[in-house]
Design a protein that fits this description.
2 domains; alpha+beta; nine-stranded mixed β-sheet; six-stranded antiparallel β-sheet; 7 helices; D-amino Acid Aminotransferase, Chain A, domain 2
Length: about 290
């Protein structure tokens, strides 16, 4: 599948039924378009099975709750809808996007209590998120923006509004020849990339920012458990930018990113080493088990 995302063949699940891809539209006065009242999930299907699909469905519902929206569907109903989309499009290996938002209705201001909560699910075939960096090591810029304090926005939600500075930072990074950008948090500690969590390796031990001020990714949690099961020490803690000079390896995790090695962040360089490659291989085996 190729071409513009609004002009493709296939089916999209929307508000309880499958519709033709090109007919999955919303009105221009949809509340989410004006006020960012939207949450979403990104998931990958491997060999016909969505990895941790139910966990993603539960998180979608929780993200909606954090934005004062009540999901019109249960996690089980969302699971079934995702499978229906995959079956209707004949996909076995695909990326799945579930999105929930406040639609158009009687309200068109900041308040939108009378507007319906709507939902859609689409899927498409998508390769490596970072292209060749998946094997060679991604190059990251340092974002000029910072991840916000949890006192200013619901950082535990996978909400569309939180990605505004991600888009801006990724554009700036790409203009410099980088694959992505690394954010610091509002206190100056290392946080995450625009769409992935970050890990560092030093002397065989793994260090990763404490995920209490940005989204605690499902892939992040999976990789941490894998490492602990293999007897690898994992330190979840505050990491200062100057510490990056002491780390030997670095990698990103995310549903789209999977496990992607990092070769450079700003002026800091890292090996695409055996430890990172082993983690990537073990994750690939797990998702296809």
């Amino acid at each position: 599948m190729a071409g513009a995302y609004d002009d493709r063949d296939g089916k999209i699940w929307m508000d309880g039924k499958l519709v033709e891809w090109r007919e999955a539209n919303v009105h221009i006065l949809t509340h989410a378009l004006h006020y960012a009242s939207s949450v979403f999930e990104g998931e990958r299907c491997y060999s016909g099975k969505i990895f941790k699909g139910h966990e993603h469905s539960l998180r979608l519902i929780e993200s909606a709750r954090l934005l004062d929206m009540t999901s019109p569907y249960s996690a089980e109903e969302i699971d079934a809808a995702k499978q229906a989309v995959l079956d209707a499009n004949g996909f076995k290996d695909a990326y799945v996007r579930a999105v929930m938002w406040r639609g158009s209705g009687e309200d068109m201001g900041v308040s939108a209590r009378r507007n319906p909560v709507r939902m859609a699910i689409a899927a498409w075939e998508w390769g490596s998120y970072y292209g060749d960096a998946k094997w060679q090591g991604a190059k990251l810029d340092i974002a000029k923006w910072k991840r916000p304090s949890p006192e200013t926005i619901p950082t535990a939600a996978k909400a569309a509004g939180l990605y505004m500075i991600c888009t801006m930072s990724k554009h700036a990074a790409e203009e410099k020849g980088c694959s992505d950008a690394l954010f610091m948090d509002w206190e100056g500690y290392v946080a995450e990339a625009t769409g992935a969590n970050i890990f560092f390796i030093k002397d065989g031990e793994v260090h990763t920012p404490l995920a209490d001020r940005f989204l605690n990714g499902i892939t992040r949690q999976t990789v941490i458990q894998m490492l602990k099961d293999n007897g690898t020490a994992v330190h979840e803690r505050r990491i200062k930018p100057e510490e990056l000079a002491d780390f030997q390896e670095c990698f990103l995790t995310g549903t789209a990113a999977e496990v992607t090695p990092v070769g450079q962040i700003g002026d800091w360089h890292f090996q695409v080493g055996d430890t990172t490659r082993k983690i990537a291989e073990d994750y690939e085996k797990l998702v296809r088990a």
